[in-house]
Automatic annotation (TrEMBL):
Name this polypeptide is given: Copper(I)-binding protein
Keyword Signal: yes
Keyword annotations: Signal
UniProt signal peptide: 1-20
InterPro entries: LpqE-like (IPR007410), Lxx211020-like (IPR058248), PCuAC_sf (IPR036182)
Pfam families: PCuAC
Protein species of origin: Tepidamorphus gemmatus
Gene3D superfamilies recorded: PCu(A)C copper chaperone
Length: 156
């Protein structure tokens, strides 16, 4: 079952590669990183993507850096007393072997902190992701319109 699911995911990753922008380092695949244009004066922006671990052991996304932000953090959304709050994921975001984790609005995401120049629609924001085992890879987050809920490549 897991192998079938993984095979299906790989087929999707390959067929969408022409329109999306995908990355691979070691056993880690990163599909279509995206972010949103920021309203004037905003200092933080979220980043989203699908991370797949094709290896046999767990890995972790432990850090994010970008020339466009003073620092990066890895966040999760949690419901506290009826209010959605975000907090840093302690110890990094685990990607289990053979599994995919989707970073998306309302869930896990990376956070660009103290952004110096707000993201504009259509820009590609460079960032380096660091994985505990797979190492570092530089990707580009495509900036969609303010308030977008999905990556453009995922719209049907
Ligand atoms: Cu956040």
């Amino acid at each position: 079952m897991r192998i079938a699911t993984l095979a299906a995911a790989l087929v999707i990753a390959v067929t969408s590669a022409a329109i999306a922008h995908d990355y691979r380092i070691g056993s880690i695949e990163i599909e279509a990183p995206w972010t949103r244009a920021m309203p004037p004066g905003a200092k933080v922006g979220g980043g989203f993507m699908v991370i797949t671990n094709t290896g046999n052991e767990a890995d972790r996304l432990i850090a994010l850096t970008s020339p466009r932000a003073a620092r990066g953090e890895i966040h999760e959304m949690t419901m506290q007393e009826g209010i959605m709050k975000m907090r840093e994921v302690a110890g990094g975001l685990e990607i289990a072997p053979g599994e995919s984790v989707e970073l998306k609005p309302g869930g896990y995401h990376v956070m660009f902190m103290d952004v110096t120049e707000g993201f504009r629609e259509g820009e590609r924001i460079p960032a380096t992701l660091m994985f505990e085992k797979a190492g570092e890879i530089t990707v580009e987050f495509v900036a969609t319109g303010v308030g977008a809920k999905q990556a453009p490549a995922h719209m049907h």
